[in-house]
Amino acid sequence: MPQVQDPKLLVSGSTMDDAGVYQINEEQALVQTVDFLTPMVDDPYVFGQVAAANALSDVYAMGGKPLTALNISAFDLDMDTVILQKILAGGAATLQEAGCLLVGGHTIQDKEPKYGLAVTGIVHPKEIITNAGAAPNAALLLTKPLGSGILSTALKGDLLQENALEELTQVMTTLNHQASEVMQRIGVLAATDVTGFGLLGHAWEICASSDVGMELYFNKIPLMSGVVDFANMGVIPGGAYTNRRYLEDKVIFNGISEAGQIIMTDPQTSGGLLIVVEEKKLNSLVNELRLKGVEGAVIGKTTDKPGVINVIS
User: Fold this and answer.
1) 40 phi-psi bin (left φ>0, alpha ψ -120 to 50, beta other)
2) What CA–CA distances, in Å, run from 309 to 199, 305, 312?
3) What is the CA radius of gyration of the chain?
4) How confident is the model over 34-88, as pLDDT tens digits?
5) DSSP string covering the chain, please?
6) pTM for this prediction
7) Where do the domains of the chain lie, and which CATH numbers do they carry?
């Protein structure tokens, strides 16, 4: 993309961040993002919920508060329009939960349904959380378990049991607002949400933007039920292989199985926040997250070896 230069443009694509940030006065800056998806679950209402949570997450990752949203949808008119109504209803319910106002949208005809949102939020210009603020010897914390890409692939193959589907749905429809509010209050160095590039892809964005390295501990990473079994069976989305190829010269795996490597590049939908926090603030962050019902897992640390991610068991 052409790089736009403007003193009011506080965050743009140059740091690979989750959203753009534009300052409008000394106390306020707009956080803007857009995201849309093809269905990853069969229930259209749940699909709407997940897609909305996924789009809102970019604002939360920047430390912002969502204000307004616009629907973006594509739909085949040969399908029952009740399906589209349910998708939009699911999205609207999630926006209401987030306290974000739906103010309009746009729909086109397409053979494959798609849905998402353009979201505008607000943040104080001095309280923006980006990919570029990490420093060596800080802790890495993840707020949701991995595996949504693999489990969604299993669902498409009618391989997923009802209890696993319930867990998958619960994880993907959960907003990241509680984690965002806590990390703002505690004060953290950097953060991103874990979505289509997988855990390692988004970790790499922090490394590249902050000029640090990382050490990740695979056995500390929370996983949804059945993820390892499905990965061993080869039930893997194509995006995981694409992510892995991109990262092959950036990540060193030490004693990690083939399945484990794939899980760490599995593209996530509405994943958790990956937070970089100083060690002296780590306990406070973990404890306050727990009080809000968020189980933050400490999965590694940053290092002073820029551009190198070491994964150990």
Assistant:
1) alpha
2) 11, 9, 10
3) 19
4) 999 999 999 999 999 999 999 999 999 999 999 999 999 999 999 999 999 999 9
5) -PPP--TTEEE-GGGT-SSEEEE-SSS-EEEEEEEEE--SSS-HHHHHHHHHHHHHHHHHHTT-EEEEEEEEEEE-TTS-HHHHHHHHHHHHHHHHHHT-EEEEEEEEE-SS-EEEEEEEEEE-TTS---GGG--TT-EEEE-S-B-HHHHHHHHHTT---HHHHHHHHHHHHS-SHHHHHHHHHH--SEEEE--TTHHHHHHHHHHHHHT-EEEEEGGGS-B-TTHHHHHHHT---HHHHHHHHHHTTTEEEES--HHHHHHHHPPPSS--EEEEE-HHHHHHHHHHHHHTT---EEEEEEESSTT-EEEE-
6) 0.95
7) 9-123 (3.30.1330.10), 131-312 (3.90.650.10)
CB atoms within 10 A of CB 239: 18
Note whether 3 and 12 are within 8 A (CB): yes
Tell me how far apart the alpha carbons of residues 241 and 286 are, in angstroms, rounded to a whole number.
32
Tracing tokens 């965050």 back to the chain, one arrives at 11
Q: Cα angle at 301 between 295 and 304, to 5 degrees?
A: 160
Locus of tokens 């897992």: 297
Contact 46, 103 (CB under 8 A): no
Count other C-beta atoms under 10 Å from residue 26's C-beta.
9
Q: Burial-class residue 7 by CB neighbours within 10 Å (0-12, 13-18, 19+).
A: exposed
Residue labelled with tokens 């989305």 = 237
Amino acid residing at 53: A
- Do residues 243 and 267 touch, judged by C-beta distance below 8 A? yes
- What is the tens place of the pLDDT at every residue in 164-220? 999 999 999 999 999 999 999 999 999 999 999 999 999 999 999 999 999 999 999
Contact status, residue 121 vs residue 88, Cβ threshold 8 Å: no
